[in-house]
Every structure is written in C-alpha cells, then in structure tokens.
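ugh finaly. both done.
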Amino acid sequence: MSTTGSPPAAADPLVAALSDIVGDDHVLTDAALTAAYETDWTRRWSGRARCVVRPADTDQTAVVVRACVEHDAAVLAQGGNTGLVGGGVPRGGEVVVSTGRLTGLDPVDTVAGQVTAGAGVTIAALHDHAAAAGFAYGVDLGARDSATVGGTIATAAGGVRVVRYGSTRAQVMGVEAVLPDGSVISRLDGLVKDNVGYDLPALLTGSEGTLGIVTRARLRLHPRPAHRVAALLAVGSVAEALEVFTALRAAVDELAAVELITHEGIELVVEHAGGTRPFDEPHPVCLLVEVTGRDDPTDALAAAVADLPVVRDAAVAADPPARARLWRLREGHTEAISAVGPPPHKLDVSVPLPALPELAARAPEVVAALDTTARVVLFGHVGDGNLHVNIIGPNPDDDRVDRAVFELVAELGGSISAEHGIGVHKLAYVGLGRDAADRAAMRRIKDALDPDGRFNPGVLFED
C-alpha cells in the first residue's frame, strides 16, 4: 500500500501503473514498509527500492515487467531475502518484484515423483507438502522457514542433503519464468528426457535473477525414508573427519548428511542459544552425520563407527527430539556468528575433497596475517567440499580478508562460491574462478536475453 500521502500517480507514474496491475495494497513505497526488502540477512548490504511490487501470479508478473520496460526501470526479483552476498537487495532504486504471493502448490504427482510449486513457497512448506504424500524434497537448509523455491533456484542452493540428493540443480525438472522483455517461458511438463534445444530451466538455475524471474517450478521428489538416525562423531582434525566420511560412504547405504563443525563453533552456539555441550571433553572437530533407510540404520551406523579408531567419542540420536538437539548445534551457527560483533564476513567456498584439510588449516592463517584480532569460525558440508569460512571482527567494508581467502581457494583449485552465489560481494573476484573466455560467454548470454541490463544490474557482471 502506498502511504506517501498523495495518489501514486502524482508521486511516480510507474508506481501508478503497477498499482493498476496488482492493486494498491501490493505496491509498497513507504520506507517503513519497504525496509524489510532493502537490507540482506547479513546486514552488510542495503539500498533503496523505487518501490516493492507483489504480483499474484505469472501473468501479473509479466505485466509488471512490461510496465517496467515501458518506464525504463531496473528490476530485482526477491524471494525470502535470506541471501548472504547482497544479490537480492536493491542498490540503485530498482523495482523490487517480491515473489511472496506466489505460493501455489499443486498436488504431488505420486507417479512421476514430482510437484509444481510457486516461487514464493518456502522450503519448509514444500517439505511438509511432500511429506504428506510420502515424499521428500532433496534440498534442505537452515533458512528453510524463510528461503523460497524461487530464491533457491536463482542461487542453485545446496544445503545439507547434497551428499544424498545433489543441489537444487538436480531437483529442477522445469520452470515457468518471466524474461526481461516481459515474455513468459513455461516448461512444467517434468519430462525426464527432453533434448529439444537448449535447457533453459538449467540456464536460469543459478543465474541469480539476471536472466529471468522464476515464478513456478517443477521439482523432483524422492521417496521419504522410513528411518533416520543422526550421530555426532568427535575427531581430532578435518583430515580425520574426511577419513570418517570416506569410510562411512563405503559402509552405509544412505548417507544423507555429513556436516563439519568445530569446538569453537559449538561453544559459540551454546553461548548464544543455550543448551548443553555434546561431550564431557572438548574435541577440535565434530562430524554430524545422518543416515536414512527403509530399515533402521542405527546398527549399521554403530558398526561402521566402531571400526573407526579416529572417532574419539560419539553421540547417537534416533528419535526426533534427540536428532533436533544435535542438528541445533550445526544449524545454530549462522545465527550465533551473526550475534557477535559487527556483521561478519561470511565466505562460502568449495575445494576438491582432498584439499579440504589444507583449506581448513590455512584459511585462519591467511586471515591472521591481515588481522590478528579476527576470529575465524569454520563449518560446512564435508561430502561436497563446501566450507563456510566466517570471519568475525574486521570492518564489514574491509574486503582484504575476503580476497585472501578467495585467493587461497583459487590456489587449491576451488570455487569462490559453492552455494550462496556471487551477488555483489564476490563481483570483483569472479576472475579467480572463471577465465576471460568463460566470462565473455556468460556476458553474451546476458546481453542476448537482457540487452538493456534491466534485471538485477550489478550482479555477476560489473555494469
């Protein structure tokens, strides 16, 4: 609702046009109403929107985009605003197109094992919807209550189940999306085999809103496991954690999650959120593993762990409350880290699995070389080589520590973005992972679909 004190047309003709499309209640211009859309979750990036518009469906979204084209306005799509790299908030007066009202969920196709979901459906709601039909959605992450289908497709999100199901890319069977000229592509048939031309849904997945606004998606589902058991395994180093992962991968059938946390991270979570420490004695590194199956996998997991002399201690949780307590130690990291000092530097990187111990050892060293007072907290996904390097202390605008870690990652043959995207945070470092020919090819795709640079300007490319 516009609360500027005068009719929308008097303030901005585009706002008036958008109000005609979606209704006054769904065009926000007052600062008190737009504020929640203008700062990202980390608090490191913020800006002002020309307005926030909330279309009800794909057709309205297309008309909204065409109105923005007519008024030569930049457009930024936003889902749950849980991004961590500044790519989902306005920077220069863009029109923010919120997908928050696109919450339709079709019945689960139990034959195909698929479902069509609106871009504004939260990951938690999708999980509940799939579970009611006996299925599971393969992507899960701590921000599940706020993160949306559209946002996770835009960033090709990973999460904690990649080792079992793959990232968001592996779940997307098709999309419906509005392109920068206001046209609509719709591929929601869910065909497993379809080799007619370019795979446009795959192209839009991970494009960070620079090529189109996903409004609906056809998603792959998986049979819901009947049994689930979690265990927290204490080891002496990241190298030993990798050894445990390698052994468990060979010993158990359905390894669903393998998460790495450190003593310092556990202490931070306990300090911030309360609760109890998992072991009487502190251990440098812990591995949180979860195993699923048609039959109870507890005995198989216990037998596999018993054969691993590097495991110093173990806490096993088979019932839901006990599993939740263990998972809280992992999922509480993000909130606990953000509660300490200024906005942290949250670096999301990946390396080849054999290089993971070296990354974990050297990342704190390269940070300390620049700032001896900085506090580094590591956690991540062992199964896919994805480590979250959280740096507490340096000024949020001081990117020296970011560059040092990214250069280390490039040296180790890794990626500066494993699952959070590039956004604006990593724009200056894209060359560490993509050579000139690669960047030029991506630029040509952007220019072909969005010649005016209208969609999410300043993300992925230095406009």
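ok and the 2nd:
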Amino acid sequence: MDWWLILLLLLGGMAFFMLSGLPVAISFILINIIGAYFFMGGTQGIGQLVLNIEESLTSFSLLPVPLFIFMGEIMFHSNMGFKAIDVIDHWIGKIPGRLGLVAVMSGTLFSTMSGSTMATTAMLGSLLVPDMEKRGYKKPMSIGPVMGSGGLSMLIPPSALAILLAALSQISVGGLLIAGIIPGLLIAFFYASYIIVRCILQPDVAPAYDIKKISFPEKIRDTALYVLPLGIIIFLVIGVIFFGIATPSEAAALGALGTVILSSIYGNFSFKTLQKSVMGSIKVTGMMFMIILGSMTFSQILSFSSASEGLIQAVIGLNLHPFMLLIAMQIVLLFLGCFMDNLSMVMVAIPIYMPVIKVLGFNPLWFALIMLINMEMANTTPPFGLLLFVMKGVAPPDTTMSDIYKAGIPFLLCDATAMILVMIFPAIALYLPSIMH
C-alpha cells in the first residue's frame, strides 16, 4: 500500500472517531490499535503496542509533569500570589495602562512558578479584570493583557507542555525548559510595549486614576516580604536546572515543596486546598499521559508502515528551501490551533514533523521551541482556544465571546512577531541552553 494512502487512512480514521464525539486521546488509542493490527502483524502487533505503551509512560523524564502542574494548582487555590500583585502595582506608578502592565508583570512572575496556563489566567483574571472594569478600562485592555500573560506559563519554565514536547521529540527536557526563558521575556516585553503605546494613542481604553502613595521604604519592605521569597521558588525550579545542580525531575520536586511551604506562610493553605490541588493535578496529568501514549505509539506505527519514510522522501522531492517548509509547517499548526487544543496538536504534529525536521537539518530543540510558541498562540486563537473559555468563566457577566476574541488578537500578533524573530535568529532560543552546566 502506498505511504500516502496509509497516512490518509490513519489520519482519516482518527478524524472520524473525533467527529463521532469521542475524546481526542481515546480516538488516538483506537486508531493505534487498528493501525497496529493491520501494519504491525495482527495480534502480535497489538501485543507490541501494549509493550510500547508501558515503555512510553515509564520514562523518568516525564516525572516533572505532575509536579509542575501541582505547583500551579497550589498557587491558584491558596491565593499566595495576591500580595505580590499589590507590590508590583505599587512599583509601576502612573504609567499609561498601568493595570494592564500589572497583569503582564504578574503573569511573567507567576509563569516562573506555575506549569499551568489555566491556573495563571484564572488567578489573574479573577483578581484584576473586575478592578480594571471598575476603573473604566475597556474590554481590549482589561481582558487582553490577562489572557496573553496567562499563556506565558507555557513558555517560561516550569512548563508542563515543554516537558511533554521534549519527551515526545526525544530532546533534552532541561534544554527546552531553559530555551523558553528569553522568548517568553521577549513576548512579555512586546505585550508591555503594545499596552503603553495603545494607551498613549487611545487614553480612553485605560483611563488614568489617582493611586495611593506608598513611601519608598514601604515598597522595599513589601518587596522583601512578598516578592523576594517567590525568587526562592524561581531558583529551585530554573536556577538548579541551569547551573546543573539538579535534573528537571529533582527541580520539580524542590519547586513543589517550596510552593507548599510558601503557600502555608503567605497564602490560605489548608487540607481542602491540598485536596483540590491534588485532584486538579491528577486530572490534567492523566489527560497528558494519555496524549503521550497515543502520540508515541502513533509515531511507531507510522515508522513501521513506512509512512514516515514516504513522507520524508516526498518533502525532499519538493525541492523547496527548508525555511519555506518550516514556515508552511507553522502555518498548518496555526490553522489547527483554531480548532484543536495544544495537547491534541502536539499529538498529531510531532510524529509527522520531527522526522522531517531532522532530515532537513534543523536543530530539534530550536524547532520544538518554535512549536511551543505556536502552542501558546493556540490557547488564544478563536474560536476554540482554551484560555478564551477560561477567561469567559472569570470575566464580568456582560463579557461576550466576541469581546474576548477581539481582545486577544493584538497579543496574538505580539506572539507571531516573537515567533518570526526566533525563526530568523535561532540564538534567541539556543543561547541559554548552550551555556547550561
């Protein structure tokens, strides 16, 4: 059977199961079973599939996933970050769009302690958006900054999706986590620049208001009390990986322990908070692990059936410049992001894209980081971006989905600008991993 027909049957079968109402992960498992039976030797192929599933889920590199998610859940349910947001607010002063900048700076800070974009967005949205609306901020400037900043948790470590992407791509987990730092900060800079420029050009979208004056010694004291301790968690997660003190798995354990201790001191930590955080972590981790086993086994079926090899030869035969193929891949992902969640996109794309990337001679770590930015954009891409619905849940009752879509578009353009820069200048992503110990 021709390779393209095999690929068409596998992807078509998966699409059929998904359209019939089955969850994405279950659809993948079913098509994997069918593919293993027909292309890997009948019942022996299914037996091999079971062995592959066990192998794919018992990798030590996946251990940080539940721990990073747990950190985000603890931070959200214990409200430990609210005091830090107040401190950031005091430092910013009378800058145009100051509450939008508070959202960006807070989102960037909490992204270094949370592996969950949903938890960060929900926390910032529930705290900041009502205050913005009360002070006369228009929807684009109250909703957009929170949604964009919440998505930074996918890029800035600890990122659970980065670990998943690294595991599926068989690249360094620590390298990909560290690679997200500079692009994440670059995107935050673009967000802040956009907010300031727009608020200068259109002052009515974020009206100025009088703020309570806080003395400099008070600012220093509050910073030492409520912000600097969060730096301990940042070091426990990012610093120990960068300096080679600990593996990502060990860093995740240290970060989770540090988050629990700090939330006990600064937040409202209780047994109920712990219970909610554990249950939330189990649900998300279970879903992600199903994605992993589905994607890894699908990759093996494509390889065993020669579909991967046929696809690679077809791509090479196009005689297009490798960079044009790279752009085409990202456009496909952007389109998929309009209709699929980022976990499903990773599941579909990695088995097909990674073999092609290696043949084209691109750095897999660099490509994975570009994909990660694409996944971050998928979170706010209409009509089915996950953070769009998280924001709808915490926004004021009069907020429509149309308001949320429009508010997210300028921040998507900031993301796209950063992605283009990373594609043109790979050092933005690769510099920090290159100097890791």
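summary for the 2nd one i guess: The longest helix spans residues 271-304.
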